[in-house]
Amino acid sequence: MDDIDLEEVAAELKAKAADLRARIAELTKVVDADATIGFGKRIGDGTIQAIQQMEDTSAAESLQRTLNEVEAAQTRLRAGTFGRCVVCGEPIPAARLEFRPWAATCVQHAG
C-alpha cells in the first residue's frame, strides 16, 4: 500500500463513478412522450429496436454493478480500509489495485 497514492486513487474513483453515472443515464434516458416506435415496412425493424433496448438494459445493469463497486471502494477509502481484502483482511496487491482500483478482494477471494 505504501506505493499507492491514495489521493490519486480517490480522484480516479471519482472520475470513474462520474463516467459510469453518465453512461448509465444515457442508456436509461426516458424516451420523449411524442416519440413513436417506427416499424418500417418490415416486421424485423421493431424486433431490432426491441433487441437494442434489451442490450441497453443489460449494459446499464452491468455498469450499475461496477458503479456500486466503485462507490464501495470510495467508502473503504474514507474508512481507511481501502486496499485490504473484505474477506480475509490481507492487503490487496498493488498491481491489482492499479488495474482495478475498486477491487474489494485479494486475488485468492476474487472468484
Automatic annotation (TrEMBL):
Segments forming dksA C4-type zinc fingers: 85-109
SUPFAM superfamilies recorded: Glucocorticoid receptor-like (DNA-binding domain) (SSF57716)
Keyword Acyltransferase: no
Any one GO molecular function term: zinc ion binding
The keyword Phosphoprotein is annotated on this UniProt entry: no
Keyword annotations: Metal-binding, Zinc, Zinc-finger
Occurrences of domain Zinc finger DksA/TraR C4-type (ranges): 80-107
Protein name: Transcriptional regulator, TraR/DksA family
Classification of source organism: Bacteria, Bacillati, Actinomycetota, Actinomycetes, Propionibacteriales
